[in-house]
Structure formats: structure tokens, C-alpha cells
């Protein structure tokens, strides 16, 4: 091949690489936005659940019993901003406490209990979508080329948020290691 | 809320996805939302007059044992863009986005809150395996994924590495629960009847297995009759019956929605001998809503709907002897039929569109974040963002955020 042909080929490859890089950067930016939006929804819903639990503990302490009310109040307070820094652990403690509530709570307005159950279910939905966004990001970020070219520009890899939510578990491995 | 629904298949051809989109749209409108539908069809005139937009014609391709419609190209892209721009949707809900259809075009064109529902449940889809990685960049834009069954969800997880929440198909329960019976076939009065509904010339619907079983059933219950409703060639079916079975089988042919409900209310036992490929047993839920006791093959989707046999009898698929035994036993035991009928009606209530649509709305509310604006066509947004500091190129040089 003549030097001209080589040059043309090199230019072609460079253009392709540039186009691909731009496209991947767009994808990364889009995914970053999606993860941020999903997290903000999840965060809101977690706080709503904690607030409702705190309401239940402080307004209906007599019905729940002294012990249970104190415990529920403590975990609900802890869930918002845990001292240990482990939010998942704190939210799980709240979830366990809520699930352990007796089915019959005479004197507690039914509306509060329904709202609490709904807040729990909606938190589960938000968590599912957040983790899905994180999974999509992992699948792209852990590819060879984006990693080699450091297209993520040192942004931290988003973390999965794992708490019990009563929804069915994923049946097969689909985590970042599945690829 | 302003909602845009996208149906990938021809509106004028009957099918599960089409009915799903139609019923979801109706129910959401009943709940006070504004719903627009974008769908292909053979002719623009075959769409409803209001709140439906024609996405053009489709090219049929064989897919998953049936015909799927394929549609990609600049013309449909332009239509999609106009629909998105004029709709001002808060959320757009596409169905089967992994098919080469207008749903995929919407995923490629739209930015903003996108929700997708996956219906297909093929375990090994060559299409998905081949193009899954290629279309992934566009599927990444979907912020909320729904699967209509555990099976459909597993396809997602295995082929595309995504997760989805399971929200089942809905059924309008009330029109099935109350109404008249077919004349001459009142349940419990006019001699025992077994019902079959579906495209009876499709082998996967399993009618041959049921016919084989009927030979045994009529020996034990000489008055029993099999009613076959659905599309197909009645001549070929009568040939397949032979002289011995012909008097015990009535071919009703294709029936209307209203007749279908009457049909399900009339039969003493509903039988679904399907061999494979059912993602979801909508017809089983309709039969349960109509109070028909059910004998069905043990497909995953059917077992799920029938609550592992609590709301209906499950038999091994393709096993005509087992099917015959189950049908005969059930015809001989009116008490058990009544119990199954009650259990079925209770189970069907959970699939009522009113319940299901509210769960879909929960998904919409989870992906629509207050204050971020609705769905737009991507190009419009890119033009707007070109001058802004948040474009593509600056991010090359931007330092990591803290």
C-alpha cells in the first residue's frame, strides 16, 4: 500500500474511534443522570417511610407497647442519617421492625397503616429501578475500552442499594460479574 | 398525568399486546389521565378516531412461532418525533422495546421518563441474543422496566442483563363475571360441556391432545360435549375428528368479545391444553373471572396464574391420558367444581384492570421526578444542550464531581 492509503486508513480509524468515544460519553452521561434521578426518588421514599414510622412510634406508643415504640422510634431516627454511615443496615433495621408489627393494632388509624404499607412497597419499586440503573452503568463502565480509555473520568462507580423489600429476588445472577 | 403508550404490533390484528395496550389506555383514561396511543396498522382508518396516532405499516417477519411486525426507517422516525413533540407527555410507556418496531424507534428518539413492558417469554430468542448488545445503548434510556410474568422477567435478566418488576396482565373482570350464557348451554343445566378457546389450527395451542383425551372422556360421560371457539379451518378440524368424536364436538368458530364472555360463563370446565410458548394466561384469568373451573397444562405461566393448582387443575403438558383423567374426575364431582370456581374468582380479582393499572401508575410515579420535565424527542434536546456547558465534549475534560 502507498503511504497515502495508510494515512487514509489511519484517519478512518481515528474518526471511528472518536465517534465511538463521543457516543460512549453520551451514554455515560445519560446513565449518570438516570442513576442520580433514581437515587433521588429512592432517597425520598426511604425518608417518607422513616417519617411515617416515626409518626406511628410517637403518636401511638401506648398501642405498640413501651418497648416496641422506643425501638421503632430509634430505628426510624437512625434510618435517615445513620451514625455508623451504613444506610442499608439502618434501613434494614427499620424494615425488620415494621414487618414485625402485629397485624392487629387497635386504636391506630387504618389510614396510617395503609400509608406505611404503601410507602414500603413504593420504596421497593424505587429501589428496583435504582439498582437497574446502577446495573446498566456497571455493564458499560466495566467494558474493556471504556475502562482503558478512562472515559468515566474518575467518577466513582455507583453502588447497588440492597435492602429487603418483599419483592421477589432476582432469579439468576445479573450483577456486574455476569458479563 | 399525560401518558403516551406505544404498541409495536398492528392495531387491526388481534393479539395479546394490542389488547393489553387498548385496555390499559381505557382504564387509565377512566382514572382521569390523558392517554395517547402510537401504533402501526394496515390502514390509518382502522385506528380509533381519537387519541390514537398511526405509525405506518409494518413488514411481517416470523418470530417466536407467530408473525411479528417489523418497522424501522426514517419515515417512522419522523412520525415518532412528531408524536413526541405534539404529545407533551409526562411519561412514555413502550411495549416490547427489543423488537425491531416503532417501540424501539421511540426508545432511540425519546429522552425523558421512559417505561417499558416486556411480554415475550421465549427462553432462547435468537433475535435477542443477536441484537441485544447492539440495541442496549437505546434500551439504557428506559428508567422503569415491567415484565408481565416471572418468565418474561427471566428473559430480561438472561438476555439483556436488566431487572424488571412483575406486574401481570390485566383483565376486565366484571364483564366476564356477570351476564347471559350461550343459548342451550347453561352451566350445570344443559349437560356437561368442556370449553376450548384459541387458534385451534396452531399446534402449540394443543387441541389434538384435548381431542385425544375427549375420546376417553365421552366413554365415561356420554353426554359430555366439547365446544371449540376461535379462528381456524373448521373443515380440517372436522376431518381430524372422525366419526366417533364428531357428535361430541361443536365448532363455534370465531366469536366476539361478548360471546367469549358468554362462552366462558356457559362451559362446565375450561380446558387449556397448550404445549408451549405462552407468556401469560390471560384467557385463564378470563375463565376464572367467569367462574369456569379450569384444567390446564403445567406451563410455568399457567401454574403461576392458577396458584400452583389451588385455583385450577394442572396436568402434564401433552399427556392426553392425564388430561382425560383430570377432565373426567372434574365432570364427576360438582362439589370440587364449585370450590375451584370460587377459588378462581377470588384469584381473578387481583388481575382486574383497576388493580393492575394502579400498579402501573405507581411505576410512572416512580420514574417521573417532580420538576424534571416530560418526554421530548432527543434531537430537540441535543440542540438545546449544544451551547450549554453540559454537552458531550466538555465532559472529556471535566474533573470528577465530589
Protein architecture, described:
The complex is a heterodimer of chains A (179) and B (402). Chain A has 179 residues and is mainly α. Chain A has one domain: Up-down Bundle (de novo design (two linked rop proteins)), CATH 1.20.1440. Helices cover 70% and strands 0% of the residues of chain A. Chain A is rod-shaped and about 90 Å long. Residues 168-179 of chain A have low confidence and may be disordered. With 402 residues, chain B is α/β, with parallel strands linked by helices. Chain B is built from 16 helices and 17 strands. Residues 382-402 of chain B have low confidence and may be disordered. Chains A and B meet through helix 1 and helix 5 of A and helix 5, strand 10 and helix 14 of B.
Largest interface: A-B, 39 and 35 residues
Helix content of chain A: over 70%
Give the class-level CATH name of the largest domain in chain B: Alpha Beta
**Would you report the number of β strands of chain B?**
17
Through-space gap between termini of chain B: 35 Å
User: What CATH architecture of chain A do you see?
Assistant: Up-down Bundle
Shape summary of chain A: rod-shaped
Which descriptors would you attach to this protein?
heterodimer; A: 179 residues; de novo design (two linked rop proteins); rod-shaped; B: 402 residues; alpha/beta; Rossmann fold; 2 domains; seven-stranded parallel beta sheet; 16 helices; 43% helix
Q: How is the topology of this model organized?
A:
The complex is a heterodimer of chains A (179) and B (402).
Chain A: H1 3-59, H2 61-64, H3 66-80, H4 87-99, H5 110-141, H6 144-148
Helix pairs in contact in A: 1-3, 1-5, 3-4
Chain B: E1 2-6, H1 16-30, E2 34-39, E3 52-54, E4 59-63, E5 66-70, H2 74-87, E6 91-95, H3 102-109, E7 110-111, E8 114-118, H4 126-139, E9 144-147, H5 150-160, E10 165-166, H6 173-177, E11 193-197, H7 207-220, E12 225-229, H8 234-245, E13 249-253, H9 257-266, E14 269-272, H10 282-289, E15 294-297, H11 300-305, E16 313-315, H12 320-331, H13 334-349, H14 353-367, E17 376-377, H15 378-386, H16 394-397
Parallel strand pairs in B: 1-2, 1-6, 2-3, 6-8, 8-9, 9-10, 11-12, 11-14, 12-13, 14-15, 15-16
Antiparallel strand pairs in B: 4-5, 7-17
Amino acid at each position: 500500500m502507498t503511504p497515502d492509503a495508510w494515512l487514509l486508513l489511519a484517519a478512518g480509524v481515528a474518526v471511528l474511534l472518536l465517534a465511538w468515544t463521543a457516543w460512549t460519553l453520551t451514554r455515560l452521561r445519560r446513565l449518570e443522570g438516570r442513576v442520580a434521578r433514581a437515587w433521588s426518588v429512592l432517597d425520598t421514599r426511604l425518608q417518607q417511610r422513616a417519617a411515617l414510622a416515626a409518626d406511628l412510634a410517637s403518636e401511638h406508643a401506648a398501642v405498640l407497647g413501651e418497648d416496641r415504640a422506643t425501638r421503632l422510634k430509634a430505628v426510624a431516627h437512625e434510618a435517615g442519617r445513620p451514625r455508623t454511615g451504613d444506610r442499608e443496615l439502618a434501613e434494614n433495621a427499620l424494615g425488620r421492625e415494621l414487618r414485625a408489627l402485629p397485624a392487629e393494632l387497635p386504636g391506630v388509624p387504618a389510614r396510617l397503616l395503609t400509608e406505611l404499607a404503601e410507602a414500603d412497597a413504593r420504596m421497593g419499586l424505587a429501589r428496583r429501578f435504582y439498582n437497574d440503573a446502577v446495573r446498566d452503568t456497571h455493564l458499560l463502565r466495566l467494558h474493556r475500552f471504556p475502562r482503558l480509555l478512562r472515559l468515566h473520568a474518575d467518577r466513582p462507580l455507583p453502588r447497588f442499594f440492597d435492602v429487603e423489600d418483599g419483592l421477589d429476588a432476582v432469579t439468576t445472577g445479573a450483577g456486574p460479574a455476569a458479563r | 398525568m399525560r401518558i403516551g403508550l406505544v404498541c409495536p404490533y398492528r392495531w387491526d390484528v388481534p393479539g395479546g399486546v394490542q389488547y393489553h395496550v387498548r385496555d390499559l389506555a381505557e382504564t387509565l383514561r377512566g382514572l382521569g389521565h390523558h392517554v395517547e396511543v402510537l401504533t402501526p396498522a394496515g390502514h390509518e382508518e382502522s385506528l380509533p378516531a381519537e387519541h390514537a396516532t398511526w405509525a405506518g405499516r409494518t413488514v411481517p417477519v416470523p418470530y417466536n412461532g407467530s408473525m411479528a411486525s417489523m418497522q424501522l426507517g426514517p419515515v417512522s422516525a419522523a412520525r415518532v418525533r412528531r408524536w413526541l413533540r405534539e404529545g407533551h407527555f409526562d411519561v412514555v410507556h413502550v411495549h416490547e422495546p427489543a423488537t425491531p418496531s416503532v417501540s424501539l424507534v421511540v426508545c432511540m428518539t425519546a429522552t425523558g421518563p421512559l417505561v417499558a413492558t416486556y411480554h415475550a417469554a421465549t427462553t432462547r430468542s435468537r433475535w435477542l441474543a443477536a441484537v441485544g448488545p447492539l440495541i442496549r445503548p437505546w434500551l439504557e434510556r428506559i428508567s422503569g422496566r415491567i415484565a408481565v410474568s416471572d418468565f418474561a422477567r427471566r428473559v430480561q435478566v438472561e438476555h439483556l442483563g436488566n431487572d424488571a418488576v412483575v406486574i401481570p396482565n390485566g383483565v376486565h373482570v366484571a364483564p366476564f363475571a356477570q351476564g347471559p350464557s350461550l343459548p342451550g348451554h347453561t352451566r350445570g343445566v344443559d349437560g356437561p360441556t368442556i370449553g376450548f378457546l384459541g387458534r385451534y389450527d396452531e399446534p402449540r395451542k394443543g387441541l389434538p391432545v384435548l381431542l385425544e383425551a375427549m375420546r376417553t372422556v365421552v366413554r365415561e360421560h356420554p353426554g359430555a360435549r366439547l365446544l371449540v371457539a376461535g379462528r381456524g379451518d373448521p373443515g380440517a378440524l372436522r376431518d381430524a375428528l372422525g366419526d366417533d368424536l364428531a357428535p361430541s364436538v361443536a365448532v363455534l368458530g370465531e366469536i366476539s368479545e361478548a360471546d367469549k364472555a358468554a362462552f366462558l360463563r356457559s362451559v362446565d370446565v375450561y380446558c387449556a391444553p397448550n404445549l408451549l410458548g405462552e407468556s401469560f394466561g390471560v384467557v385463564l384469568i378470563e375463565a376464572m373471572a367467569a367462574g369456569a373451573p379450569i384444567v390446564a397444562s403445567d406451563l410455568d405461566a399457567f401454574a403461576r396464574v392458577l396458584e400452583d393448582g389451588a385455583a385450577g387443575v394442572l396436568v402434564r403438558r401433552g399427556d392426553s391420558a392425564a388430561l382425560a383423567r383430570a377432565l373426567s374426575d372434574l365432570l364427576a364431582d360438582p362439589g370440587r367444581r364449585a370450590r375451584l370456581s370460587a377459588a378462581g374468582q377470588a384469584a381473578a380479582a387481583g388481575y382486574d384492570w383497576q388493580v393492575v393499572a394502579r400498579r402501573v401508575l405507581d411505576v410512572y410515579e416512580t420514574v417521573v421526578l417532580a420538576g424534571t420535565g416530560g418526554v421530548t424527542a432527543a434531537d430537540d434536546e441535543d440542540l438545546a444542550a449544544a451551547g450549554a456547558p453540559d454537552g458531550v465534549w466538555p465532559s472529556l475534560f471535566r474533573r470528577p464531581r465530589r
